[in-house]
């Protein structure tokens, strides 16, 4: 090896090569010897031998800058830029790669990941060095006959399947980048709420027309509704007193629409207050033996029944307060018993209330039968709710509600 260095200094590369080859024979794993031998081959113009040795060196030492430098010099001379690109992309040493940025063709980088967006996107495409980005927006393969990226691409409402490649100044083409975008910036219209705001003196149902693929949320405390507010799932009774509702529609992409705000005043002109009617109900339940005292104590268990006011209803032309029965244990845990009661707002008559269940006959016609308790909100679609409200003058919104005597459970005369 010392003799090889001696002749290298004299620029007698033929003799230096013979000594360097002998040194490699004696120590084939010595990278320093291999580098010197590659230098001799390179100085003598033996490109193939130089390439073979440099690849061998890189296989043993991925960070050997001398080997990369000689390889890139030979490939550049031959204009084999694709090979240089592959060589650098496979190099794990960023310090070496950073010295040759112009030879590398990396896939373009997009400023937004693919996905669903509720706002117009200004999509930027970034290249790692000088060159040209070609792209398509319809999912077709990008090439030099496609669109040339020169400024951000604006993605408005719609679907986009964007594919892009980068070609550097040496004509080397990168791998492809592909992303799919769905942009929906359609602002939903204000929800259609019925009835109109105003003053009411009879129990009334509030319903909202919800377009397909939209979701409506609302608040009752005066705050602006968001996607975290109460979700409208079906028509619900108007609460007694003065209340302001705010409704907003959200699109499937999460875009909030124009708000609808309504103010209702429901004054039933009742002879009994909600609390007085509840006391009347408790008195009747004690007389019927359903509870033991006005505090709701029951025969079995250590807990008691609780009767919570839900809303006002109209049955056969008479207005009632509806109360839901819950069982509450000593720990304060509460669960519904499945029973509802109504109390006339004027006379104080008390009844058990059940919702008639819809059954289907053999002929396929809908018939009525005794069902369970009333739901918190009627499970009807927006279309069905609209039809029900249209018939409310004739049937009333609670036409399927059946009243039974508290004592016998049978229908009252």
Provide a brief overview of the structure:
The protein is of the alpha+beta class. The chain is built from ten helices and 24 strands.
Structure description:
This protein has 413 residues and is α+β, with helices and mostly antiparallel strands. The chain folds into four domains: 2-103, Serine Threonine Protein Phosphatase 5, Tetratricopeptide repeat; 109-183, Immunoglobulin-like, CATH 2.60.40; 192-266, Immunoglobulin-like, CATH 2.60.40; 274-404, no CATH class. It contains ten helices and 24 strands. The chain has helices spanning 2-9, 13-26, 31-43, 47-60, 65-78, 81-89, 94-97, 274-287, 382-390, 392-395; strands at residues 109-110, 115-117, 121-123, 125-126, 131-136, 147-148, 153-155, 158-168, 177-183, 192-194, 198-200, 205-209, 215-219, 230-231, 236-237, 241-250, 260-266, 304-315, 318-328, 334-344, 350-355, 357-360, 366-369, 401-404. The chain has a five-stranded mixed beta sheet, with no helix packed on it. It has a five-stranded mixed beta sheet with strand order 11-17-16-13-14, with no helix packed on it. Strand 19 and strand 20 form a beta hairpin. Helix 1 (2-9) runs antiparallel to helix 2. The radius of gyration is 41 Å and the shape is elongated. The protein starts with a helix and ends in a 9-residue tail after the last strand. Mean pLDDT is 87; it is low at 359-375 and 377-396.
């Amino acid at each position: 090896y010392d003799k090889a260095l001696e002749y290298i200094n004299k620029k007698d590369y033929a003799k230096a090569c013979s000594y360097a080859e002998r040194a490699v024979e004696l120590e084939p794993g010595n990278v320093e010897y291999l580098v010197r031998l590659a230098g001799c081959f390179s100085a003598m113009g033996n490109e193939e031998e130089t390439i073979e040795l440099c690849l061998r060196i890189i296989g043993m030492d991925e960070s050997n800058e001398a080997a990369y430098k000689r390889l890139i010099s030979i490939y550049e001379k031959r204009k084999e830029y694709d090979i240089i690109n592959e060589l650098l992309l496979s190099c794990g040493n960023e310090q070496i790669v950073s010295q040759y940025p112009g030879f590398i063709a990396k896939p373009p980088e997009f400023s937004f990941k693919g996905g669903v967006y509720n706002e117009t996107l200004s999509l930027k495409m970034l290249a790692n060095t000088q060159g040209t980005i070609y792209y398509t927006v319809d999912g077709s393969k990008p090439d030099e006959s496609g669109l040339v990226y020169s400024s951000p691409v604006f993605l408005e409402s719609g679907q986009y399947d964007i594919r892009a490649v980068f070609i550097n100044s040496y004509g080397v083409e990168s791998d492809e980048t592909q992303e799919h975008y769905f942009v929906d910036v359609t602002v939903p219209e204000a929800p259609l709420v019925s009835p109109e705001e105003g003053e009411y003196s009879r129990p009334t149902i509030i319903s909202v027309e919800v377009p397909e693929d939209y979701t409506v949320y609302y608040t009752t405390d005066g705050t602006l509704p968001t996607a975290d507010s109460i979700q409208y799932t079906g028509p619900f009774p108007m609460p007694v007193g003065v209340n302001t509702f705010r409704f907003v529609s959200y699109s499937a992409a999460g875009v909030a629409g124009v708000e609808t705000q309504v103010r209702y005043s429901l004054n039933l002109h009742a002879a009994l207050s909600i609390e007085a009617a509840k006391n009347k109900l408790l008195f009747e339940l004690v007389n019927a033996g359903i509870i033991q005292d006005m505090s709701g104590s029951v025969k079995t268990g250590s807990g008691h029944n609780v009767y919570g006011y839900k809303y006002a209803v109209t049955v056969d032309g008479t207005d009632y307060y509806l109360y839901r029965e819950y069982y509450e244990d000593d720990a304060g845990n509460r669960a519904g018993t499945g029973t509802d009661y109504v109390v006339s707002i004027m006379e104080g008559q008390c009844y058990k209330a059940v919702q008639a269940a819809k059954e289907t006959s053999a002929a396929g016609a809908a018939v009525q039968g005794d069902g369970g308790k009333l739901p918190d909100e009627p499970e009807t679609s927006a279309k069905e709710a609209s039809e029900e409200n249209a018939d409310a003058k004739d049937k009333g919104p609670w036409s399927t509600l059946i009243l039974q005597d508290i004592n016998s459970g049978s229908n009252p005369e």
